[in-house]
Amino acid sequence: MEAIHNTAGAVNLKSQAELDALHRVMNAKAKRKKNIRTGGLLAANIVVAIIILLPLLYAVSVALMPSSELFTMDLNVLPKQPTLENFKNALENVPLLKFVLNSFVVAGIITIGQIITCSMAAFAFAFLDFKGKNVIFMLVMATMMIPGEATIISNYLTVSSWGWLDTYQVLIVPYLTSAMGIFLFRQFYMSFPISLYESAKLDGCGNIKFILKILMPLTKSAIGAMAVYTFINAWNMYMWPLLVTGSEAKRTVQIGISMLNSVDAQSITLMIAGVVIIIVPSISIFIVGQKQLIKGMFSGAVKG
Amino acid sequence: MKKKPSLLERTRAYGFLLPCILIFAIFLFYPFFKTIFLSLYKTNKMGQAKLFVGIGNYMDLLTSSSFYNSLKVTLIFVVIVVVGSMAIGLLGAVLCNKAFPGIRAFSTAYALPMAIASSSAAMIFKIILHPSVGILNKLTGLNINWVSDPKYALVCVAILTAWLNSGINFLYFSAGLGNIDESIYERASVDGASPIQQFFHLTLPGLSPIMFYTLVVNIIQAFQSFGQVKILTQGGPGESTNLIVYSIYRDAFFNYRFGSAAAQSVILFVIVMILTLVMFKIEKKGVKY
Fold first, then answer.
1. B265 contacts in A (CB within 8 Å)?
2. Angle ∠(B5,A190,A233) on CA atoms, nearest 5
3. How far is CA B124 from CA A49, A90, B101, B230, in A?
4. What is the per-residue pLDDT across A5-34, written as a single tens digit (0 to 9) for each?
5. Most Cβ neighbours (<10 Å): which of A245, A253, A270, B214?
6. Residue B1 confidence class, pLDDT cut points 50, 70, 90
7. β-bridge mates for residue B43, sequence order
């Protein structure tokens, strides 16, 4: 017994130094391996991200090129003499700022309007009791099955019979609510106990005050997600504004920019500069709101 | 007022629903039924129903080679777009699954296409694909007129759309990957599974709950593509990119055949409805993995 103990002790003693050394070697190996992996991951990400962003990077590059540089047979990825001339010309050739303003007004009102109408409806579905609640909710959800493109002809005929063509309201009113928004908000509201509503009511808090002072502050992340998503979609609308706006005064950016599309071929750089100008707002809002968007959309969906 | 609190309460509830219901009624339900109604008529140039033809418009469509072509190119288009956009989204999500320096910037890059309008993207691709000054021909040394050649036009529009739709897929897949338990990877590593084995045996099955949802959402979205066709190809060359929504637009607003356009809208609706029902069914059942 003792002998075995002794040898074991010796092995232990002997190995302490070796173990340390081994530890160090292994650590260094693991660290190197980890570094190589991180480096590989980083390299793969850089390659893929550049490919994904290539169309945008190329657009910026062309927008900065003098048009003479684009029309050569040489490979011209980057502008040799970058210029802001295209941006200036684009702003002069078409009333781009007017279009940007129109789009901001339209997308802004649609976003605020959707948040208001969807909060109201979701509140009714989550906290109030009334006849036909389930039927109405099913009807609202059923609207998600109707693609906007399938009703666009009838909608066009409707608004033109009202004399609404070429107005702000024709761009805004049809989009003032969304089944997805109602569903998202309701999902969040359902996670609150009904006693929240009842005690607020006992304290003399009216329904509207309850929505504004209690529900909205509690569902900031859902509202943020909705706002980013709705604004970007409204900013990027194409088919409806194409059909219902005719004059420059009411055109939104996406339709306005197609005006640059039809002018002569020499002005490609000018057109791309215009595209870059109108992409900037939607990308900025997306970058600022991305975290909010993910948090609001997926935390609600996963919990629900 | 205290006599009938329940009635008041009920009226209040309807009051809160009123804005939504009104808009849905006027701009979704009414036009939905009107479209079905129009699809049974021949119309005048103002879009007024003039002559009842029953299923005549549908019969005309079902015997028209142009409509079959439109369905065929839409189908090919949808397959390329869905496979492409899901592959790009998945690649990005897998690359951003483990923490490393700069991960936020890369996530933003992969999600970014979702912020870009189809029309803006189409104009950028128009230059990329331009036969003489476009960067694609210059880089590859080819001399192909991409959007004017019926062989390539559809593929080009589809790749552009796949790129546009990939951003939201990245978000879906990232959320899906976040739900997979990290420890199964550690155990698999210990057992000596290669990263490729791990991807096929752990990652893909782990994503299956969100995979079906993403698939159906993508198919529906691809069916509704319009702006890129309008700007890049106008349905041509020939009718090689005449996707169904573009065909509806052309029939209604160039040929003033609102009845036929309405019939095509109804067919589009039926396709989307079936896909949506499939999605709800799958969601309800809960995909097992």
1. 149-153
2. 110
3. 18, 15, 31, 14
4. 555 555 555 677 888 888 888 888 888 888
5. A253
6. very low
7. B49
pLDDT digits (tens, 9 = 90+) for B216-234: 889 988 998 998 999 888 8
Residues of A in contact with B253 (CB under 8 A): 243
Interchain proximity B248–A149, CB inside 8 Å: yes
Which residue in B16, B95, B174 is closest to A120 by CB distance?
B16
> Residue B287 in 3-state DSSP?
coil
pLDDT at position A300 over 60 = no
In this predicted structure, what is the pLDDT of residue A194?
A: 87
Q: Which domains does chain B have, with CATH numbers?
A: 5-38 (no CATH), 56-285 (1.10.3720.10)
Q: Dihedral (C-alpha) A21, A24, A27, A28: value to the nearest 10 degrees?
A: -110
**Cβ proximity of A164 and A202 under 8 Å:** no
- Report pLDDT for B4: 47
In the predicted model, what is the mean pLDDT of residues A158-182?
92
Is B261 at the interface with chain A, CB within 8 A?
A: yes
- Architecture of the structural domain at A85-303: Orthogonal Bundle (1.10)
Of B8 and A154, more confident: A154
Question: Is B118 near chain A, with CB under 8 Å?
Answer: yes
3-state secondary structure of B37: helix
How far, in Å, CA of B120 to CA of A56, rounded? 10
Distance from CA of A18 to the nearest CA of B (A): 25
* DSSP assignment of B114-135: GGS-HHHHHHHHHHHT-TTT-H
Minimal-distance CA residue of chain A relative to B224: A149
- The interface residues of chain B toward chain A in range 32-91, judged by CB-CB distance below 8 A, are 32, 34-35, 38, 47, 88, 91
CB contact under 8 A, A71 and B133: yes
Q: Where are the domains of chain A?
A: 2-57, 85-303
**ipTM (interface pTM):** 0.85
Query: Whole-prediction pTM value?
Result: 0.85
CA distance B224 to chain A (A): 7
Residues in chain A: 304
Q: Please give the residue of chain A at the shortest CA–CA distance from B265.
A: A150
**Residue B229: both structure tokens together:** 């066709």
The minimum CA-CA distance between A166 and chain B, rounded to whole Å, is: 16
Stretch (H or E) spanning B42: strand B41-43
CA distance to B249, B258, B275, per residue, from B58 (Å):
17, 13, 21
Identify the residue among A153, A270, A279 best suited for mutation to test binding to B, counting B beta carbons within 10 A and taking the highest.
Answer: A153
Q: What is the 3-state secondary structure (H, E, C) of B159-176?
A: HHHHHHHHHHHHHHHHHH
Q: Per residue in B24-82, pLDDT tens?
A: 999 999 999 999 998 998 888 877 877 888 888 898 888 888 999 999 999 999 999 99
- State pLDDT tens for residues A55-73: 999 999 888 888 777 777 7
Q: Helix H segments across A128-178? A: 133-142, 148-161, 168-172
User: Max alpha carbon distance in chain B (Å)?
Assistant: 84
